[in-house]
Design brief:
Layout lengths: L4 H6 L2 H5 L15 E2 L9 E4 L6 E4 L2 E4 L5 E5 L6 E9 L5 E8 L12 E7 L2 H6 L11 E4 L3 E4 L2 E2 L6 E2 L12 E8 L2 E6 L2 E10 L4 E6 L4 E10 L18 E2 L9 E2 L2 H4 L2 E4 L2 E4 L10 E3 L6 E8 L12 E2 L8 H6 L1 H4 L8 E9 L2 E6 L2 E8 L10 E2 L6 E10 L1
Antiparallel strand pairs: 1-17, 2-5, 3-4, 4-17, 5-16, 6-13, 6-17, 7-8, 7-16, 8-9, 10-15, 11-12, 13-14, 14-15, 18-29, 19-22, 20-21, 21-29, 22-28, 23-25, 23-29, 24-28, 25-26, 26-27
Length: 399
């Protein structure tokens, strides 16, 4: 899968090619090295989660499950074996291990495209009719655009590999996973026995992620053994999106100017910002506290039910509103793009000086155009419309 074209055009190739590298602890005699340093979460990158969603405590990683999202490694992996122990603190607890994930969540959702190895407590099976489409633990399945050929006991949907037997211990007991990931194939062993296999995975190179999904979960003894590369091609690899940092934490409006009249309209809803519908919301723009100069902004914007989106998906640049005739003329091509009502759309907005490039749903719709009246730096705004406005996955990379 290629990187967005505007990034290839505007950023140094060396910056795109060099993954973020964290210093790795030394491997043991078996070739395994810890994925955590035993002190904190250094080397891991939060995605759509709050500062306290994941923490290191008493020799383990703890996730509160709130808000829904994930954190990923700073390093990219292709072929490897990962081992970990996990437990849930309540019946039907939910979490997951993402293999070969992307660097940003998929459009409109809090999770990365990749392959998920399910980490669910036994309670899910008896509470949710799991055998119809998912199990309480140990399924392997592609999410949000990834693909995989399921094998063995296959779900009725035809997309998931189920474990051949149930070997998970109920909460709050610890369980052991060994996941071998090689040449696009994933083999999962639960508490000492291989039970699930997924083949022909795409992507087959990317980040490793731990999931936060609604309930507290613990992880310990997380270690990895890297295996020789088999030369995954760029089109077989996850998009990395290096250098992007989240602009909200899914819990509140921290980092945004939130006067009382704005708070009355806007709220954080996990992976999204949301403004109430109604005429009272019009003009109640949510502005960043920080000012930015040159950047690439990733933002998902939901099209109103009328199908008529706000200019630039509702994003305002460097404090500039969209009311000036000059700016309206510049943004005219965007008004001609047909968007499905109620659907999520992903914008990559790059601003270098007064030059604007916009990629919408992986298609360049504005290419290096001049934007009149821009300040050198300014806040970024999210507009509220009368139909209600919803934004997700707001990440920014300063250039």
């Amino acid at each position: 899968m290629k990187q967005p074209r505007f990034l290839l055009a505007l950023l140094p190739l060396a910056l795109l090619a060099a993954p973020l590298r964290a210093q790795s602890p030394a491997a043991d005699a078996d070739g395994f090295a810890p994925l955590f340093n035993g002190k904190d979460l250094s080397g891991w990158v939060p995605c759509n989660v709050a500062e306290d969603t994941f923490r290191w405590e008493n020799g383990m990683v703890i996730t509160t499950g709130q808000p829904t999202g994930f954190m990923r490694t700073g390093k990219v992996y292709e072929n490897f074996i990962i081992e970990l122990e996990w437990r849930h603190l309540k019946e039907a607890g939910n979490s997951g291990l993402f293999i070969w994930g992307e660097g940003l969540p998929a459009p409109g959702v809090p999770y990365a495209r990749g392959i998920e190895v399910q980490i669910l407590d036994l309670g899910y099976e008896k509470n949710k009719g799991a055998n119809e489409w998912f199990t309480s633990h140990g399924d392997i399945f592609p999410i949000w655009g990834a693909t995989m050929t399921p094998t063995g006991r296959v779900a009725k949907t035809g997309k998931r590999s189920f474990p051949t037997e149930n070997r998970v211990k109920p909460s709050p007991e610890w369980n052991h996973y060994r996941v071998e990931c090689k040449d696009g194939e994933i083999k999962l062993s639960v508490n000492g026995k291989e039970v699930t296999v997924g083949k022909d995975c795409y992507p087959r190179k990317g980040y490793i992620c731990l999931e936060s999904e609604g309930s507290e979960a613990h992880f310990r003894n997380v270690r990895i053994k890297e295996l020789p590369s088999s030369g995954a091609k760029p089109e077989q690899s996850a998009r990395l999106y290096e250098g992007f940092k989240q602009l909200f934490d899914g819990k509140g409006l921290g980092g945004w100017k939130a006067e009382d009249e704005v708070k009355a309209v806007w709220s954080a809803n996990g992976a999204t910002f949301k403004a109430k519908a109604g005429e009272a919301s019009v003009g109640k723009t949510l502005w960043t506290e920080r000012e930015f100069g040159n950047f690439t902004l990733c933002v998902d914007s939901k099209t109103p039910k009328s199908g008529t989106p706000l200019p630039l998906g509702g994003v305002l640049l460097r404090g500039l509103t969209s009311e000036s005739p000059e700016l309206k003329a510049v943004l005219q091509p965007l008004s001609q793009v047909e968007l499905k009502p109620g659907a999520w759309n992903r914008y990559f907005i790059t601003l270098l000086g007064d030059r604007l490039t916009v990629e919408l749903n992986e298609k360049t719709v504005l290419d290096n155009i001049v934007v009149p009246g821009l300040a050198a730096k300014g806040s970024l705004g999210l507009q509220a419309g009368a139909e209600g406005s919803e934004y997700g996955n707001v990440f920014l990379k300063e250039l």
